[in-house]
Amino acid sequence: MNRQDPEAEIGARAEAYRNWGRWGADDALGTLNFIDDAKRAEAAGLVRGGTSVSLSQPFDMNGPQKGWRRRTNPVHTMLDTGTDAERGNQGFPHGLGGADDVIAMPLQCSTQWDGLGHIFDHGYAWNGRRAGDVVTSDGDLVTGIEQAASAIVSRGVLLDLGRYLQPETGELPDGYAITAADLRSCIDAQGATSAVGTGDIVLVRTGHYARARRDGWGDYAGGAAPGLSLTTAGWLHDTEIAAIATDTWGFEVRPNEFDVPAFQPLHQVVIPNIGLTIGEMWDLEELATTCEQFGRYEFLLSAPPLPITYAVGSPVNPIALL
Known about the structure:
There is one protein chain. This protein is of the alpha/beta class and 322 residues long. The chain is 25% helix and 18% strand. α1 runs parallel beside α9.
C-alpha cells in the first residue's frame, strides 16, 4: 500500500469492491440483504442454554465523547420524580404518582450502527446516488436507518483478536492494523464455530474498550486505537458478511495508515461502495469471556436499530443469545 497516496488506495478498493446495483437500483439495505429468513432460522438454532449477553455500553454522562463535531455524551433529565409524587403536585387522582424522564444525545455517541447514509465517497452515497439527493436537511430520505429496523437479526461470530494476538494482555496496542491474514488465522485458531460466511454479523474484539474502562476514557473517542486495516476491504467484500462491529470508536485503525492527511479511509470504501453496515463502541467483554468458557464463538445476534425516521445512525443494545 502506498502510504503517500490515500486517494489512489481508496479509489482502487472502492472500484474493485463496489456493490452498486447488486440488489437493484432502489436498494436501501446493502449487505444486510445477505440476511434472509433461512439465515435467521439457522441463527435461532444456535441458542442452546439461553444465555443472554448485552453488548452495549452504558448511555450516560460518563461516556467517551468530548464534543468533537458536536458529539456529546447522553444527557438524562427527570421530568417527574418521587419527590413530586410525595408532595402530591402531579395532578393525579387517588394517590397515584409516577416518574418520567427524557434523554438528549447524538445518535452515534455510544454503542451504535453507522447507517448507509453516514459516509459518502466523492459526493456519492450508497448505490451510486448523489449524496445531496439522499441526505438533506430532512435527513436520509433514501437509506434511513428505519429501513433496517427488522433486518439485523442473524448469526453472530466473535473474532477475539485481542486474546488471539496478545494472549498475555488480551488487548491490541493502539495503532495496530488488523489484516485479513489476522482475521483468517484467528478464525482458524478459534475453531469451526468461528467460520465466517454469507449473512453473518462479525464482531471484532480488540480489547480497546476494556483498556479504556480500566484506565479512563482518555482519547478513546477519536484517538489512537487498534482497528481494521484498509487492506481488509477485500475480505469484508468477499466473505459476504451482512455487518461488522468493533469495540473501538472508529472501527478502523487509528492513526490511519498514511503518512499524509487521511481520515477514515476504510469507511469511505465499505459504507458507500460495499454497502456494509458498521457498528462501533460495542462492549464485547462479557461475550468474549462467555464464548471462551463455552468453547464456541457463534450465537444468535439481535441488534435492530431504533426506527428513527431518516436517521443516518442509531443507538443499539445488541443482544447475543447462546
